[in-house]
Backbone:
């Protein structure tokens, strides 16, 4: 069965084209057609490198079972991990309780894509169904929740983790608990100042406060001169929550976002490096020198805090004009005290996965940093990161968690 929707961009939606999806047997295929109006638009841009600005249908199919059935720009906004689990539970619960009009017996890739809240979907892409409704439509009872509803959101997330969720729990997370990547419980939320944010919650299996660890890393990153997402730890009835401001919004304006994975057109079973991202920046960024310096600092920072989850989807870019993109603020920075020091994104093709400051210094010129300047930056960053305990204490991290995190910050050159 073929399914389709119309694709728009922006808060004041501008039509870009039509996306269709079809599954035959085990093969899923999508097609995209730019609208004539978008191709004539003076502000036109390609939604992603695998969708050049040409007339006529363009086709994409998953080459392996772990690849997306969609073009890169849509793959970036697909739910995964936590989001998929919430959708699956919601779908199953609605069918069991006879709620909703969908007679489908299972979910396909297109259903997952359309299940995400239109308001909180990452970036600027919006999807409108055949009835003219932007998906996922806002439920009259469930808009993106305000901060005051955190206790209910936490209870709902915990119920899902413990396989005890009710339809009411799923209503709280419908759409807004599905629009963000990763495996951990989280939800889109409206901050006290009215801005869109991410609430990241503790998980029932945590042995240390991951919430405090991530906010600690983001605060340290800013002190190290890194553009990073704004964050804070807030208390909800004694439970810590990481509140992280969305950087793909500027007031009501939606900013077009793509991951480094999408812009590099990365292949699933191929290894990539920070030098690959640096080469990409030199091609697409209107402020390449600045972005290269930022990328080098992030690479160093990930080594210093043992962030072993620095894969290509955790590096992002925001669209400016034409086919130009700038490095987005750093996000998903986490110290891993219980993991071997290694990087998902290698320093260079020759370095391997080892998190080596010497290797990073050796390639500083690839980031337009003279060796002496790179050494000075590294020295300054090491000094700042060494203050992590006092910052952790200021964030309310308890003594047990501080002891647990210590190995992540005890870097020694391999």
Residues:
């Amino acid at each position: 069965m073929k399914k389709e929707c119309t694709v728009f961009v922006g808060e004041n939606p501008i039509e870009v084209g039509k996306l269709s999806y079809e599954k035959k047997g085990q093969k899923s295929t999508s097609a995209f057609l730019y609208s004539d109006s978008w191709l004539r638009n003076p502000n036109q841009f390609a939604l992603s490198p695998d969708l050049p600005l040409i007339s006529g249908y363009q086709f994409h199919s998953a080459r392996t079972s772990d690849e997306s059935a969609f073009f890169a720009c849509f793959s970036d906004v697909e739910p995964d991990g936590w989001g998929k689990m919430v959708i699956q539970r919601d779908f199953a619960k609605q069918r069991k309780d006879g709620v909703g009009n969908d007679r489908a017996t299972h979910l396909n890739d297109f259903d997952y894509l359309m299940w995400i809240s239109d308001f909180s979907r990452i970036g600027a892409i919006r999807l409108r169904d055949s009835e003219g409704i932007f998906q996922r439509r806002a439920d009259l009872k469930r808009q993106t929740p305000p901060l005051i509803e955190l206790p209910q959101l936490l209870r709902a997330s915990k119920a899902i983790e413990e396989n005890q969720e009710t339809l009411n729990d799923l209503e709280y997370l419908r759409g807004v608990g599905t629009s963000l990547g990763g495996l951990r419980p989280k939800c889109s939320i409206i901050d006290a100042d009215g801005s869109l944010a991410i609430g990241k919650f503790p998980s029932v299996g945590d042995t240390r406060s991951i919430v405090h660890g991530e906010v600690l890393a983001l605060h340290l990153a800013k002190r190290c001169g890194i553009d990073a997402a704004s964050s804070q730890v807030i208390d909800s009835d004694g439970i810590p929550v990481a509140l992280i401001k969305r950087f793909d919004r500027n007031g009501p304006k939606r900013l077009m976002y793509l991951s480094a994975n999408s812009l590099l057109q990365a292949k699933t079973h191929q290894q990539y490096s920070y030098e690959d991202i640096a080469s990409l920046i030199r091609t697409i960024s209107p402020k390449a020198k600045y972005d290269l310096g930022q990328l080098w600092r992030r690479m160093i920072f990930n080594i210093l805090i043992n962030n072993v989850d620095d894969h290509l989807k955790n590096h992002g870019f925001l669209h400016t004009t034409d086919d130009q993109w700038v490095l987005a603020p750093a996000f998903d920075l986490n110290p891993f005290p219980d993991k071997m020091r290694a990087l998902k994104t290698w320093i260079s093709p020759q370095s391997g996965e080892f998190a080596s400051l010497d290797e990073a210094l050796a390639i500083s010129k690839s980031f337009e940093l003279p060796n002496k300047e790179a050494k000075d930056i590294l020295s300054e960053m090491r000094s700042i990161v060494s203050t992590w305990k006092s910052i952790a204490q200021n964030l309310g991290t308890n003594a047990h968690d501080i002891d647990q995190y210590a190995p992540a910050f005890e870097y020694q050159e391999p």
The mean pLDDT is 91. DSSP finds 14 helices and 15 strands in the chain. The domain at 251-409 is CATH 1.10.1070 (Phosphatidylinositol 3-kinase Catalytic Subunit; Chain A, Domain 5).
